[in-house]
Design a protein that fits this description.
single chain, alpha/beta, eight-stranded mixed β-sheet, two-stranded antiparallel ribbon, 6 helices, 10 strands, 39% helix
Length: 249
């Protein structure tokens, strides 16, 4: 019995004319770094939806905006600069990794010149948050990372999840791709890490300018909320300890 072929397709919704665009992946992952960064890029550059990826293995979720239902996994594009973005409103389940990689390599690969993947990794300290290192699938792209003053990953490692699946698929198919790994808050969405990867890696590598002041404001608001929670916990602990001390006077 022949196994069924996964039903995954790219539905084009508009023409896209760019010389040699860079595909930037912004799928949900650790700290939502990729999603936050690529959402900002798509909005700032006014990219238009080029198409959508549809598959039976993607979550049966209805996403909507401006009063209209939309596909959950979408591709945007623009020509100033030549760029494409891959975005999703929901996390990609493991059983959809293969379908998504297949669609990118079979139906989108002719539309872009290189791919850049973003992944967050847990920061071990606040000082480490926002640190970015790069990994490439080709020597030429490795040289581009160095020319852009992006530190190369010195330690051995591995990236799992949908980003790992996609970059491995590009490597196996000899598609030029780079992974930008940024240290992020291990517990909360991290707009500060997203801002860092934009300013310190994507801007010099792709040669565009993005206003990240909105991300800075979001990061400051999250920091204020974290401080408020910490103060509330300290006050609660103090109130619990006071009666105990009184019992032993």
């Amino acid at each position: 019995m022949t196994p069924e072929t996964p039903d995954v397709t790219f539905h084009r919704s508009a023409d896209f004319d760019a010389a040699a665009p860079t595909l930037i992946e912004g799928l949900p992952g650790h700290g939502l770094v990729a999603s936050i960064a690529v959402d900002q890029i798509t909005d700032q550059l006014g990219l238009e939806q080029y198409g959508a990826i549809r598959s039976d293995t993607l979550p049966p979720v209805a996403s909507f905006t401006d009063g209209l239902v939309q596909d959950t996994v979408r591709v945007y594009g623009g020509s100033d600069p030549d760029i494409m973005t891959l975005q999703s409103d929901v996390p990609i389940p493991e059983d959809a990794f293969s379908d998504l990689s297949q669609c990118v390599l079979e139906e989108l690969v002719e539309d872009f010149n290189r791919a850049i993947f973003l992944a967050g990794a847990p920061a071990q300290s606040e000082e480490q948050q926002g640190n970015v290192v790069g990994v490439a699938t080709t020597e030429d792209l490795k040289a581009e990372l160095e020319e852009a003053d992006i530190a190369l990953a010195e330690e051995d490692g591995a990236v799992s999840g949908v980003t790992g699946a996609l970059i491995n698929a590009c490597y196996q198919a000899d598609v030029p791709a780079a992974l930008l790994l940024v240290r992020a808050d291990p517990r909360l969405p991290d707009p500060a890490a997203a801002r860092s990867v934009i300013e310190n890696a994507l801007e010099p590598l792709v040669e565009f300018e993005i206003d990240t002041s909105e991300l800075q404001e979001k990061a400051e608001e999250i920091q204020r909320q974290k401080q408020q929670v910490a103060q509330q916990l300290q006050q609660a602990q103090g109130q619990q300890e006071e009666p105990v001390r009184g019992m032993f006077r």
